[in-house]
Design the sequence.
């Protein structure tokens, strides 16, 4: 295998491609099969092509993650007949819901920073208005673009001190909210989200090391007709800074 290419951000519940370039250095044509070794619960495809002697050929296989967002390392296996010709090469990905599959999907960061395809930008400039339908109420957070990761994780909003309030729309019924927190440059503290003084969810009991991220979740009830929710965001541990890279309302 000469190389393997894949996007670093994969959609949950949808097929995500990995393209492999293989070369046959032998004197005879050879059938080559590519497949992906995925976590439990994922599904995947495999593909077999004939690579002519002395030639190169691309083939694409896919993997479909479970519906819960997370992180994974997906290994690429190549075989020819009963012979395993390559293993050990892998791609590391973060999985997140496709914007068409959820009620709202926000990518947090600077006003002109990179934006994950289909996601709605959430920057410090986005104060709440009825027309916008979401945004900060009162004080605004800070933002950073670390410039060293994928579009979802390279930039964040952050703040410390008194709670910062983010107002989001919640459609009718019960919805799971997923929050991605962490920092691609430095250690990060604990991020906690509450509503009306009741803790809904937090990133964990301990701080995260540099370049580490975690998804955490909680449920919100939109009632029979939908509503807005005022999420109170606070930080603890380390220097008290909370961080949000993405927020998705399922």
Sequence:
């Amino acid at each position: 295998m000469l190389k393997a290419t894949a996007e670093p951000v994969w959609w949950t519940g949808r097929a995500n491609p990995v393209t492999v370039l293989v070369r046959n250095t032998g004197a005879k044509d050879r059938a080559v099969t590519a497949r992906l070794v995925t976590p439990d619960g994922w599904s995947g495809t495999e593909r077999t092509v004939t690579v002519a002697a002395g030639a190169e050929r691309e083939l694409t296989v896919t993997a479909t993650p479970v519906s819960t967002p997370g992180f994974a390392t997906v290994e690429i296996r190549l075989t020819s007949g009963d012979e395993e010709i390559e293993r050990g090469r892998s791609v590391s990905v973060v999985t997140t819901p496709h914007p068409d599959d959820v009620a709202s999907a926000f990518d947090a960061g600077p006003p002109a920073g990179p934006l994950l395809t289909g996601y709605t930008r959430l920057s410090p400039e986005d104060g709440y208005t009825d027309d916008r339908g979401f945004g900060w109420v009162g004080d605004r957070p800070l933002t950073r673009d670390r410039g060293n990761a994928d579009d979802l994780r390279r930039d964040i909003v952050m703040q410390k001190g008194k709670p910062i309030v983010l107002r989001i729309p919640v459609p009718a019924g019960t919805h799971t909210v997923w929050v991605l927190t962490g920092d691609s440059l430095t250690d990060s503290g604990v991020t906690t989200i509450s509503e009306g003084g009741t803790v809904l969810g937090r990133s964990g009991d301990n701080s995260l090391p540099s370049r580490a991220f975690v998804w955490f979740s909680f449920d919100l009830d939109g009632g029979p007709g939908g509503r807005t929710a005022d999420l109170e965001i606070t930080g603890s541990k380390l220097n008290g800074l909370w961080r949000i890279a993405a927020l998705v309302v399922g």
Notes: Residues 3-96 form a domain with the Immunoglobulin-like fold (CATH 2.60.40.10). The chain has a mean pLDDT of 97. The chain has two domains: 3-96, 99-249.
